[in-house]
Amino acid sequence: MKCIILAAGYATRLYPLTENQPKPLLNIADKPIMEHIIEKIDEIKEIDEIFIVTNNKFFNHFNEWNKNFSSRFKIKILNDGTLSNDDRLGAIGDLNFVIKSENIDEDFVQISGDNLFQFSLKDMHQHFNEKKQISIALYDVKNIEEAKKMGICAINEESKVIDFEEKPESPKSTLCSIGVYFYPRIVKDHLNQYLSEGNSPDMPGKFMEWLHKKDHVHGFVFDKEGERWFDIGGFEALEDAKKDYEQRLQKEQKL
After folding, report:
1. pTM score, two decimals?
2. Angstrom distance (rounded) from CA 87 to CA 209
3. pLDDT 10s digits, 92-123
4. Residues 6+ apart with CB under 8 A from 255
5. What does the buried/exposed string (b/e) look like for 154-171 if buried means 16 or more CB atoms within 10 Å of the residue's CB?
6. Residue 100: helix, strand or coil by DSSP?
7. Of the candidates 206, 186, 210, the residue with the CA atom closest to the CA atom of residue 134
């Protein structure tokens, strides 16, 4: 199994902080966001290789980071060739770029490179192995106004996705996609069809809106008490994540 981390955004909402530094390499609790993500990936022993896709602006930043980062994985940094927010490929465009350039023909995990989550992926991985169908990670934001800003999912009693809408005006639930997907290899065929039909290459949620109507998609809800998820979109979320992670680190150091 492979892992694809999407890290080719330009994070303009965090300027000037991210004007010359990629968001996934911002430090939270003494290490970059990317390393927090890889710690979670490390729990899944079947994953043997990580592909991190970035852009031409930040390609050298990630290469320098990778030189000094040690893990059990083979990590390959890919440059999608874009230079600015105006010519970016988009999340789905980047996913397609990695699959085609690396000829990926097996199950894979896709993770957004600006997400911080405190829960283990092991249960979701087990769920994926049992179903052998597309699995999307969900988190209950428990707030309708917040749900309007996100990709919102509705599931039935068997955890099957019955509705998905990106930034809905009237959310059908408060379960949001957190940018973690377990995909069987067949998804690359769906991806080809989705893009060939002229659909948006920008947001993963748009692909999911289309995909759940074409194939079985299951939602896996992370709802254990005390385990949080942070979408590092702006300064408020970044500061909230820093505060939470630093408090947790201080508690660990005292033990």
Report:
1. 0.93
2. 24
3. 999 999 999 999 999 999 999 988 999 999 99
4. none
5. bbeeebebebbbbebeeb
6. helix
7. 186
